[in-house]
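[step 3/7] inverse_fold.run input=structure_tokens len=122
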């Protein structure tokens, strides 16, 4: 059991490091780094399901960083993943409130439409 505890502790240390890096990159408005770190977090989440990372939130953050760089097509793709992930999360996870994340979902859908227009989509 000690190996499991140690592995979990190491995973938590990595998770905390990734969160700190994301906070720093966000504060510095280092959009490329934000996208990279969000991708690192999503890879970490896939490898460490016991940590229970809410993946769609990091697709949302990556989408916003891509849009800030003017990459509207890529931002739309990431926001679509975030929207699908949010809906899946709402349907499968016991939420404290039934309307939890409704505002996030509405915000992402609005941004998705805005980025579609900026990218020249119909």
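[step 3/7] decode complete -> sequence:
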């Amino acid at each position: 059991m000690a190996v499991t505890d140690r592995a979990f502790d190491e995973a938590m240390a990595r998770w905390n490091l990734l969160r700190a890096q994301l906070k720093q990159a966000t504060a510095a408005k280092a959009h490329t780094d934000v996208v990279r770190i969000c991708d690192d977090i999503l890879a970490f989440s896939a490898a460490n399901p016991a940590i229970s990372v809410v993946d769609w939130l990091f697709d949302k953050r990556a989408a916003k960083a891509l849009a800030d760089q003017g990459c509207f097509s890529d931002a739309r793709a990431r926001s679509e993943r975030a929207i699908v992930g949010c809906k899946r999360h709402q349907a499968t996870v016991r939420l404290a409130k039934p309307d939890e994340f409704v505002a996030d979902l509405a915000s992402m859908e609005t941004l998705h439409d805005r980025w579609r227009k900026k990218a020249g989509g119909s």
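[step 4/7] annotate
The mean pLDDT is 92.
Residues 2-27 form the longest helix (26 residues).
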